[in-house]
Amino acid sequence: MQFLSDSLARVKPSPSIAITTLAGELRAAGRDVIGLSAGEPDFDTPDNIKEAAIRAIQAGKTKYTAPDGIAELKQAVCDKFSRDNGLEYTPAQVSVGTGGKQILYNALMATLNPGDEVVIPAPYWVSYPDMVRLAGGTPVCVESTLETGFKITPEQLEAALSPKTKWFIFNSPSNPTGAGYHAQELKALTDVLLRHPHVWVMSDDMYEHLVFDDFTFCTPAQIEPQLYDRTLTCNGVSKAYAMTGWRIGYAAGPKPLIDAMRKIQSQSTSNPCTISQWAAVEALNGTQDYLLPNTAVFRRRRDLVISLLSTIDGVACPVPDGAFYVYPSIAGLIGRTSAGGVAITDDEAFAKALLEEADVAVVHGAAYGLSPNFRISYAASDEILTEACRRIQAFCAALR
Protein backbone atom coordinates (compact mmCIF):
# COMPACT_ATOMS: atom_id res chain seq x y z
CA MET A 1 0.00 0.00 0.00
CA GLN A 2 1.31 3.44 -0.95
CA PHE A 3 2.08 5.51 2.15
CA LEU A 4 2.17 9.11 0.85
CA SER A 5 -0.91 10.82 -0.54
CA ASP A 6 -1.40 11.15 -4.30
CA SER A 7 -2.22 14.83 -3.79
CA LEU A 8 1.31 15.45 -2.55
CA ALA A 9 2.67 14.53 -5.98
CA ARG A 10 0.67 17.40 -7.51
CA VAL A 11 2.53 20.10 -5.62
CA LYS A 12 6.08 21.30 -5.06
CA PRO A 13 7.74 23.20 -2.19
CA SER A 14 7.70 27.00 -2.32
CA PRO A 15 10.66 28.10 -4.50
CA SER A 16 10.98 31.45 -2.73
CA ILE A 17 11.23 29.76 0.67
CA ALA A 18 13.72 27.25 -0.77
CA ILE A 19 15.97 30.02 -2.10
CA THR A 20 15.77 31.97 1.15
CA THR A 21 16.69 28.83 3.11
CA LEU A 22 19.62 28.07 0.80
CA ALA A 23 20.93 31.64 1.12
CA GLY A 24 20.81 31.31 4.90
CA GLU A 25 22.71 28.02 4.79
CA LEU A 26 25.40 29.52 2.56
CA ARG A 27 25.79 32.49 4.90
CA ALA A 28 26.09 30.11 7.85
CA ALA A 29 28.87 28.34 5.93
CA GLY A 30 30.77 31.62 5.65
CA ARG A 31 29.65 32.90 2.24
CA ASP A 32 28.88 36.62 1.88
CA VAL A 33 25.47 36.00 0.34
CA ILE A 34 22.96 38.80 -0.13
CA GLY A 35 19.44 37.40 -0.01
CA LEU A 36 16.81 39.27 -2.01
CA SER A 37 14.29 36.45 -2.12
CA ALA A 38 12.27 36.87 1.08
CA GLY A 39 8.91 38.59 0.77
CA GLU A 40 8.88 40.41 4.08
CA PRO A 41 9.56 43.98 5.22
CA ASP A 42 12.83 44.60 6.99
CA PHE A 43 11.14 47.09 9.35
CA ASP A 44 10.44 46.13 12.94
CA THR A 45 6.85 45.66 14.10
CA PRO A 46 5.65 49.08 15.42
CA ASP A 47 5.92 49.58 19.17
CA ASN A 48 2.20 50.14 19.77
CA ILE A 49 1.48 46.70 18.31
CA LYS A 50 4.18 45.00 20.37
CA GLU A 51 2.91 46.73 23.50
CA ALA A 52 -0.63 45.51 22.81
CA ALA A 53 0.71 41.95 22.64
CA ILE A 54 2.54 42.41 25.94
CA ARG A 55 -0.62 43.75 27.58
CA ALA A 56 -2.54 40.71 26.33
CA ILE A 57 0.03 38.38 27.90
CA GLN A 58 -0.02 40.28 31.18
CA ALA A 59 -3.83 40.19 31.22
CA GLY A 60 -3.80 36.43 30.81
CA LYS A 61 -5.34 36.45 27.35
CA THR A 62 -3.58 33.23 26.50
CA LYS A 63 -6.42 30.72 26.15
CA TYR A 64 -8.20 29.20 23.18
CA THR A 65 -10.45 31.51 21.20
CA ALA A 66 -13.18 30.90 18.64
CA PRO A 67 -11.68 28.86 15.78
CA ASP A 68 -11.60 31.76 13.33
CA GLY A 69 -10.86 34.73 15.56
CA ILE A 70 -11.91 36.80 18.56
CA ALA A 71 -14.92 39.10 18.28
CA GLU A 72 -12.76 42.19 18.80
CA LEU A 73 -10.54 41.35 15.83
CA LYS A 74 -13.48 40.51 13.59
CA GLN A 75 -15.02 43.89 14.42
CA ALA A 76 -11.68 45.60 13.72
CA VAL A 77 -11.61 43.87 10.32
CA CYS A 78 -15.15 45.10 9.58
CA ASP A 79 -14.15 48.63 10.56
CA LYS A 80 -11.05 48.42 8.35
CA PHE A 81 -13.02 47.32 5.29
CA SER A 82 -15.58 50.08 5.85
CA ARG A 83 -12.95 52.77 6.45
CA ASP A 84 -10.48 51.86 3.71
CA ASN A 85 -12.57 50.18 1.03
CA GLY A 86 -16.17 51.26 1.47
CA LEU A 87 -17.19 47.61 2.00
CA GLU A 88 -19.69 46.80 4.74
CA TYR A 89 -19.47 43.44 6.50
CA THR A 90 -20.68 42.00 9.78
CA PRO A 91 -18.40 39.97 12.09
CA ALA A 92 -20.27 36.83 10.99
CA GLN A 93 -18.88 37.47 7.48
CA VAL A 94 -15.25 37.56 8.68
CA SER A 95 -12.70 34.78 9.04
CA VAL A 96 -9.30 35.18 10.73
CA GLY A 97 -6.58 32.66 9.98
CA THR A 98 -2.95 31.87 10.67
CA GLY A 99 -1.65 34.16 7.96
CA GLY A 100 -3.13 35.13 4.62
CA LYS A 101 -2.08 31.79 3.13
CA GLN A 102 -4.40 29.84 5.42
CA ILE A 103 -7.34 32.07 4.50
CA LEU A 104 -6.86 31.35 0.80
CA TYR A 105 -6.28 27.64 1.42
CA ASN A 106 -9.37 27.29 3.59
CA ALA A 107 -11.55 28.91 0.93
CA LEU A 108 -10.22 26.63 -1.79
CA MET A 109 -10.52 23.51 0.36
CA ALA A 110 -14.08 24.44 1.25
CA THR A 111 -15.22 24.97 -2.34
CA LEU A 112 -13.23 22.97 -4.89
CA ASN A 113 -14.17 19.59 -6.30
CA PRO A 114 -12.27 17.49 -8.87
CA GLY A 115 -12.66 19.12 -12.27
CA ASP A 116 -13.22 22.64 -10.91
CA GLU A 117 -10.98 25.25 -12.51
CA VAL A 118 -9.38 28.33 -10.97
CA VAL A 119 -8.18 31.12 -13.26
CA ILE A 120 -4.89 32.65 -12.10
CA PRO A 121 -3.09 35.53 -13.87
CA ALA A 122 0.64 34.90 -14.37
CA PRO A 123 3.07 35.80 -13.03
CA TYR A 124 1.47 34.67 -9.79
CA TRP A 125 2.38 34.18 -6.18
CA VAL A 126 4.02 30.77 -6.09
CA SER A 127 1.45 29.19 -3.76
CA TYR A 128 -1.73 29.87 -5.74
CA PRO A 129 -1.53 26.97 -8.24
CA ASP A 130 -0.30 24.45 -5.69
CA MET A 131 -3.03 25.31 -3.20
CA VAL A 132 -5.58 24.81 -5.97
CA ARG A 133 -4.07 21.41 -6.78
CA LEU A 134 -4.02 20.35 -3.12
CA ALA A 135 -7.69 21.23 -2.89
CA GLY A 136 -8.43 19.01 -5.88
CA GLY A 137 -8.91 21.75 -8.47
CA THR A 138 -7.17 22.62 -11.71
CA PRO A 139 -5.25 25.89 -12.07
CA VAL A 140 -5.74 27.70 -15.39
CA CYS A 141 -2.91 30.20 -15.72
CA VAL A 142 -3.25 33.24 -17.98
CA GLU A 143 0.07 34.78 -19.00
CA SER A 144 0.47 38.55 -19.02
CA THR A 145 3.36 40.28 -20.76
CA LEU A 146 5.94 42.94 -20.13
CA GLU A 147 4.17 45.05 -22.77
CA THR A 148 0.88 45.03 -20.80
CA GLY A 149 2.66 45.88 -17.56
CA PHE A 150 2.23 42.29 -16.32
CA LYS A 151 -1.57 42.71 -16.29
CA ILE A 152 -4.03 40.49 -18.12
CA THR A 153 -6.59 41.95 -20.50
CA PRO A 154 -10.38 41.52 -20.36
CA GLU A 155 -10.14 39.49 -23.56
CA GLN A 156 -7.70 37.08 -21.93
CA LEU A 157 -9.93 36.68 -18.89
CA GLU A 158 -12.98 36.04 -21.07
CA ALA A 159 -11.12 33.37 -23.03
CA ALA A 160 -9.91 31.61 -19.85
CA LEU A 161 -13.32 31.29 -18.20
CA SER A 162 -15.32 28.12 -18.81
CA PRO A 163 -18.35 26.35 -17.34
CA LYS A 164 -15.88 24.60 -15.02
CA THR A 165 -14.42 27.84 -13.60
CA LYS A 166 -15.19 28.26 -9.91
CA TRP A 167 -12.75 31.01 -8.88
CA PHE A 168 -10.78 33.89 -10.36
CA ILE A 169 -7.80 34.79 -8.14
CA PHE A 170 -6.91 38.49 -8.30
CA ASN A 171 -3.81 40.07 -6.72
CA SER A 172 -3.09 43.80 -7.00
CA PRO A 173 -0.48 45.09 -6.33
CA SER A 174 1.05 41.84 -7.36
CA ASN A 175 3.62 39.51 -5.94
CA PRO A 176 5.98 39.06 -7.85
CA THR A 177 5.74 42.07 -10.20
CA GLY A 178 4.36 44.91 -8.10
CA ALA A 179 1.94 45.63 -10.94
CA GLY A 180 -1.34 47.23 -9.91
CA TYR A 181 -4.65 47.48 -11.73
CA HIS A 182 -6.07 51.00 -11.95
CA ALA A 183 -9.80 51.41 -11.35
CA GLN A 184 -10.71 51.46 -15.03
CA GLU A 185 -8.59 48.37 -15.72
CA LEU A 186 -10.21 46.49 -12.87
CA LYS A 187 -13.68 47.61 -13.98
CA ALA A 188 -13.00 46.09 -17.39
CA LEU A 189 -12.26 42.75 -15.69
CA THR A 190 -15.29 42.92 -13.42
CA ASP A 191 -17.47 43.62 -16.47
CA VAL A 192 -16.32 40.25 -17.82
CA LEU A 193 -17.05 38.53 -14.51
CA LEU A 194 -20.58 39.92 -14.44
CA ARG A 195 -21.28 37.90 -17.57
CA HIS A 196 -20.25 34.69 -15.77
CA PRO A 197 -22.35 34.50 -12.59
CA HIS A 198 -20.98 31.07 -11.62
CA VAL A 199 -17.44 32.45 -11.15
CA TRP A 200 -16.38 33.66 -7.71
CA VAL A 201 -13.62 36.20 -7.06
CA MET A 202 -10.80 35.73 -4.56
CA SER A 203 -9.08 39.08 -4.15
CA ASP A 204 -5.70 38.95 -2.40
CA ASP A 205 -5.16 42.54 -1.22
CA MET A 206 -2.12 41.91 0.98
CA TYR A 207 -0.12 44.82 -0.51
CA GLU A 208 -2.98 47.34 -0.34
CA HIS A 209 -1.08 49.95 1.67
CA LEU A 210 2.20 49.64 -0.25
CA VAL A 211 1.44 51.70 -3.37
CA PHE A 212 3.44 54.43 -5.06
CA ASP A 213 3.20 57.58 -7.14
CA ASP A 214 -0.31 58.24 -8.50
CA PHE A 215 -1.60 54.69 -8.06
CA THR A 216 -4.81 54.39 -6.04
CA PHE A 217 -5.63 50.97 -4.62
CA CYS A 218 -9.02 49.42 -5.41
CA THR A 219 -10.55 45.98 -4.89
CA PRO A 220 -13.12 44.12 -7.03
CA ALA A 221 -16.18 44.28 -4.75
CA GLN A 222 -15.51 47.98 -4.28
CA ILE A 223 -15.33 48.66 -8.02
CA GLU A 224 -18.31 46.45 -8.88
CA PRO A 225 -20.82 46.11 -6.01
CA GLN A 226 -22.76 43.48 -7.97
CA LEU A 227 -19.87 41.10 -7.26
CA TYR A 228 -20.16 41.55 -3.48
CA ASP A 229 -22.13 38.33 -2.99
CA ARG A 230 -19.52 36.18 -4.75
CA THR A 231 -16.28 37.84 -3.66
CA LEU A 232 -13.92 36.84 -0.87
CA THR A 233 -11.82 39.90 -0.05
CA CYS A 234 -8.58 38.76 1.62
CA ASN A 235 -5.94 40.74 3.48
CA GLY A 236 -3.67 40.59 6.50
CA VAL A 237 -1.26 42.45 8.73
CA SER A 238 1.95 40.83 7.48
CA LYS A 239 3.25 43.34 4.95
CA ALA A 240 1.91 46.79 5.83
CA TYR A 241 2.47 46.36 9.56
CA ALA A 242 5.71 44.35 9.36
CA MET A 243 4.08 41.41 11.17
CA THR A 244 5.03 38.47 8.93
CA GLY A 245 5.96 36.22 11.86
CA TRP A 246 2.82 37.04 13.85
CA ARG A 247 0.80 35.03 11.29
CA ILE A 248 -2.56 36.81 11.05
CA GLY A 249 -4.59 36.97 7.86
CA TYR A 250 -8.26 37.71 7.41
CA ALA A 251 -11.03 37.76 4.84
CA ALA A 252 -14.64 38.84 4.50
CA GLY A 253 -17.29 37.44 2.22
CA PRO A 254 -20.67 35.72 2.05
CA LYS A 255 -21.61 34.05 5.33
CA PRO A 256 -22.11 30.53 3.90
CA LEU A 257 -18.54 30.57 2.58
CA ILE A 258 -17.18 31.95 5.86
CA ASP A 259 -19.06 29.22 7.77
CA ALA A 260 -17.50 26.57 5.52
CA MET A 261 -14.03 28.03 6.04
CA ARG A 262 -14.60 28.00 9.79
CA LYS A 263 -15.44 24.30 9.61
CA ILE A 264 -12.15 23.60 7.79
CA GLN A 265 -10.15 25.62 10.30
CA SER A 266 -11.86 24.10 13.32
CA GLN A 267 -10.59 20.68 12.26
CA SER A 268 -7.09 21.77 11.22
CA THR A 269 -5.29 24.51 13.16
CA SER A 270 -8.20 25.90 15.18
CA ASN A 271 -7.63 29.48 16.35
CA PRO A 272 -4.68 31.67 15.35
CA CYS A 273 -2.29 32.63 18.14
CA THR A 274 -4.28 34.54 20.75
CA ILE A 275 -1.49 37.05 21.41
CA SER A 276 -1.12 37.72 17.70
CA GLN A 277 -4.84 38.35 17.42
CA TRP A 278 -4.74 41.06 20.08
CA ALA A 279 -1.70 42.59 18.39
CA ALA A 280 -3.65 42.64 15.11
CA VAL A 281 -6.54 44.45 16.81
CA GLU A 282 -4.11 47.22 17.67
CA ALA A 283 -2.61 47.18 14.17
CA LEU A 284 -6.00 47.77 12.56
CA ASN A 285 -7.50 50.08 15.20
CA GLY A 286 -4.42 51.97 16.29
CA THR A 287 -2.39 54.69 14.64
CA GLN A 288 -1.70 54.31 10.94
CA ASP A 289 0.85 57.14 10.91
CA TYR A 290 3.81 54.94 9.98
CA LEU A 291 2.24 53.55 6.79
CA LEU A 292 3.04 56.54 4.58
CA PRO A 293 6.65 56.98 5.82
CA ASN A 294 7.32 53.25 5.34
CA THR A 295 5.84 53.40 1.85
CA ALA A 296 8.10 56.36 1.05
CA VAL A 297 11.11 54.26 2.03
CA PHE A 298 10.01 51.44 -0.25
CA ARG A 299 9.42 53.86 -3.11
CA ARG A 300 12.96 55.23 -2.72
CA ARG A 301 14.36 51.71 -2.71
CA ARG A 302 12.30 50.81 -5.80
CA ASP A 303 13.73 53.78 -7.66
CA LEU A 304 17.27 52.92 -6.53
CA VAL A 305 17.04 49.31 -7.73
CA ILE A 306 15.46 50.24 -11.06
CA SER A 307 18.07 52.93 -11.71
CA LEU A 308 20.87 50.40 -11.20
CA LEU A 309 19.35 47.42 -13.02
CA SER A 310 18.27 49.54 -15.98
CA THR A 311 21.92 50.16 -16.85
CA ILE A 312 22.44 46.47 -17.63
CA ASP A 313 22.47 45.56 -21.30
CA GLY A 314 19.93 42.82 -21.95
CA VAL A 315 17.81 43.51 -18.84
CA ALA A 316 14.46 45.32 -18.95
CA CYS A 317 13.07 46.47 -15.60
CA PRO A 318 9.51 47.87 -15.55
CA VAL A 319 8.46 50.27 -12.78
CA PRO A 320 6.11 48.62 -10.23
CA ASP A 321 3.02 50.36 -8.84
CA GLY A 322 3.36 48.84 -5.38
CA ALA A 323 4.50 46.00 -3.09
CA PHE A 324 8.30 45.69 -2.70
CA TYR A 325 9.37 43.65 -5.71
CA VAL A 326 10.81 44.22 -9.16
CA TYR A 327 10.52 41.60 -11.88
CA PRO A 328 13.17 42.28 -14.53
CA SER A 329 13.19 40.50 -17.88
CA ILE A 330 16.46 38.83 -18.91
CA ALA A 331 15.32 38.00 -22.44
CA GLY A 332 18.42 39.76 -23.75
CA LEU A 333 20.74 37.49 -21.74
CA ILE A 334 19.39 34.10 -22.76
CA GLY A 335 21.95 32.12 -24.76
CA ARG A 336 25.00 33.70 -23.16
CA THR A 337 27.52 31.99 -20.85
CA SER A 338 28.62 33.11 -17.40
CA ALA A 339 32.20 33.73 -16.39
CA GLY A 340 32.05 30.42 -14.54
CA GLY A 341 31.02 28.58 -17.69
CA VAL A 342 27.29 28.22 -17.00
CA ALA A 343 25.05 28.43 -20.05
CA ILE A 344 22.20 30.86 -19.40
CA THR A 345 19.50 28.74 -21.00
CA ASP A 346 16.66 30.11 -18.88
CA ASP A 347 15.95 32.21 -15.81
CA GLU A 348 16.55 29.30 -13.42
CA ALA A 349 20.07 28.84 -14.81
CA PHE A 350 20.59 32.60 -14.45
CA ALA A 351 19.49 32.62 -10.80
CA LYS A 352 21.61 29.59 -9.90
CA ALA A 353 24.72 31.05 -11.56
CA LEU A 354 24.10 34.44 -9.94
CA LEU A 355 24.01 32.81 -6.51
CA GLU A 356 27.04 30.61 -7.13
CA GLU A 357 29.25 33.21 -8.83
CA ALA A 358 28.05 36.53 -7.38
CA ASP A 359 26.55 35.53 -4.02
CA VAL A 360 23.18 37.14 -4.72
CA ALA A 361 20.00 35.15 -4.09
CA VAL A 362 16.99 35.96 -6.27
CA VAL A 363 14.01 33.84 -7.36
CA HIS A 364 13.74 32.75 -10.99
CA GLY A 365 10.68 33.73 -12.99
CA ALA A 366 9.57 30.19 -13.84
CA ALA A 367 8.61 29.80 -10.17
CA TYR A 368 5.99 32.49 -10.75
CA GLY A 369 4.76 31.14 -14.06
CA LEU A 370 6.39 33.63 -16.43
CA SER A 371 9.89 33.57 -17.93
CA PRO A 372 12.53 34.74 -18.60
CA ASN A 373 12.52 36.96 -15.50
CA PHE A 374 13.67 37.03 -11.92
CA ARG A 375 12.22 38.58 -8.78
CA ILE A 376 14.06 40.86 -6.41
CA SER A 377 12.60 41.83 -3.05
CA TYR A 378 13.87 45.31 -2.23
CA ALA A 379 12.88 45.04 1.43
CA ALA A 380 16.48 45.70 2.44
CA SER A 381 18.68 48.69 3.23
CA ASP A 382 19.97 51.03 0.53
CA GLU A 383 23.50 49.80 1.20
CA ILE A 384 22.58 46.15 0.75
CA LEU A 385 20.53 46.86 -2.37
CA THR A 386 23.31 48.94 -3.91
CA GLU A 387 25.88 46.21 -3.31
CA ALA A 388 23.54 43.50 -4.61
CA CYS A 389 22.83 45.46 -7.80
CA ARG A 390 26.55 46.13 -8.24
CA ARG A 391 27.17 42.37 -8.10
CA ILE A 392 24.35 41.71 -10.58
CA GLN A 393 25.81 44.36 -12.89
CA ALA A 394 29.24 42.75 -12.72
CA PHE A 395 27.83 39.25 -13.23
CA CYS A 396 25.89 40.35 -16.32
CA ALA A 397 28.82 42.33 -17.70
CA ALA A 398 30.95 39.18 -17.56
CA LEU A 399 28.48 37.14 -19.65
CA ARG A 400 29.79 36.25 -23.07
TrEMBL record:
PROSITE patterns, per database record: AA_TRANSFER_CLASS_1
GO function terms (MF aspect): L-aspartate:2-oxoglutarate aminotransferase activity
Enzyme class: transferase
Residues covered by the Aminotransferase class I/classII large domain: 32-392
Known cofactor(s): pyridoxal 5'-phosphate
CDD domains in the record: AAT_like (cd00609)
SUPFAM superfamilies: PLP-dependent transferases
Keywords: Aminotransferase, Pyridoxal phosphate, Transferase
Name of the protein in its database record: Aminotransferase
Organism: Phaeobacter piscinae
Name of encoding gene: aatA_1
